[in-house]
Each structure stands twice: as C-alpha cells, then as structure tokens.
Write a structure and sequence with these properties.
Layout: H1 10-27, E1 55-58, E2 61-72, E3 78-91, E4 94-103, E5 110-114, E6 128-132, H2 134-137, E7 138-139, E8 142-146
Antiparallel strand pairs: 1-8, 2-3, 3-4, 5-6, 7-8
Length: 188
C-alpha cells in the first residue's frame, strides 16, 4: 500500500539529495562521468517530479530458503547475491512483486534493482536501482521503498564502469514514473 502520510520535509529531502548528487557529478574529483562531461560541460541530471504515490512502507517477505543467485554485468562479468525476500505492492491497479537481494559479502543492506515500462524510453534502458540500509530505510518492521530515490547505475554515465544487470524476475510490466530519468549526456 502506498504511503500518503509522507514524513514532514520529505519532498525537500528528496530535492536536497538530488542537488547534492548533481554537485558531485559536476565538480567531484571522483565523479563517475568522463572528464569531458564534468564542470561547465555537465549536462545535468534529469528526474521525475517527486511523487508521494511512489513511496511505500512495506514488509519484506523473507524467503525461507535464501538462494544464491548469479547476476550478469554490463561488461559480461558476474556478481553473486542472495535472493533475500520479496516486496509486494500495487502500482496503479497492478499487483507487483520485486525481489530484494543482499550482497554475498554478508552486508545487511538490500539491493532492489528493477526495469519497468519506462526503461529505454524515459529512463535508462538497463534499469535502475534502490539501495535500502537498515538504519535508514527500516522502520517499525517495514521497509521504506521510495522510487523517488531510484537512481541509474554508474554505467549509465560512463561505459568504463561495470554494473550488475537487473535480473529478469524484477522486470516490471508497469510504469514507475519516479526517480532518475535517462542521463541527458548519454549517447546511444
């Protein structure tokens, strides 16, 4: 169920996070952008307007048998994750399930990659990510799944990076019109 009671200051916090990321990409010495796209040449990042309809507080349905899964990467490599649990919710009138993964290194954060009907049109074709940290996104037994904070993997900005691909089980047949859009400086 979507949360309509967003916390006070939620929209401002989303906007501040986006502005901080823009500054880092434009000016940061560790920006993932190629040098020719930083500084004055930085084309900016593009986002959907913040929409509380895409912010959910959900239980994670943890799997009884946590399975190790191998995920391909943008550079034809592989990474290993643990399929930890599933989030079940509605987008519009559609029931949706997204798998949440934990890194195989023992970290307790969750990685929720997804592709949706905007992928390849309005958003990065290979999909977007959400990272959930227990200290920040887990409240009263529920996880905050806020698609307004969905972001592009680093390979969306620079092909020199290797990024895990979204497993097919997280390809959604709905539009998620929230979070980061395709990078304006990306050349097809």
């Amino acid at each position: 169920m979507s949360t309509t009671d967003t916390p006070a200051g939620w929209r401002d916090a989303v906007e501040q996070e986006r502005a901080k990321k823009e500054r880092f990409f434009r000016e940061g010495p560790r920006s993932p952008l190629p040098p020719e796209l930083t500084g004055e040449s930085f084309p900016g990042l593009d986002y959907y307007d913040p929409d509380p309809a895409y912010r959910y507080e959900l239980p994670l349905h943890e799997h009884d048998d946590v399975e190790e899964v191998t995920v391909g990467t943008s550079a034809e490599g592989e990474r290993t994750y643990l399929r930890w649990g599933a989030f079940r919710f509605e987008v519009g009138d559609e029931d949706v399930t997204l798998q949440a993964y934990r890194p195989a290194d023992g970290s307790d954060r969750l990685w929720v990659p997804f592709r949706d009907e905007t992928s390849g049109e309005e958003t990065y074709g290979a999909g977007r990510y959400l990272d959930l940290e227990p200290d920040h996104h887990h409240v009263d037994g529920r996880w905050v799944l806020d698609f307004n904070r969905a972001y592009n993997p680093t390979c969306a900005y620079n092909p020199a990076y290797e990024c895990p691909l979204v497993p097919m089980e997280n390809w959604l047949d709905v539009r998620i019109e929230a979070g980061e859009r395709a990078f304006p400086g990306h050349e097809e």
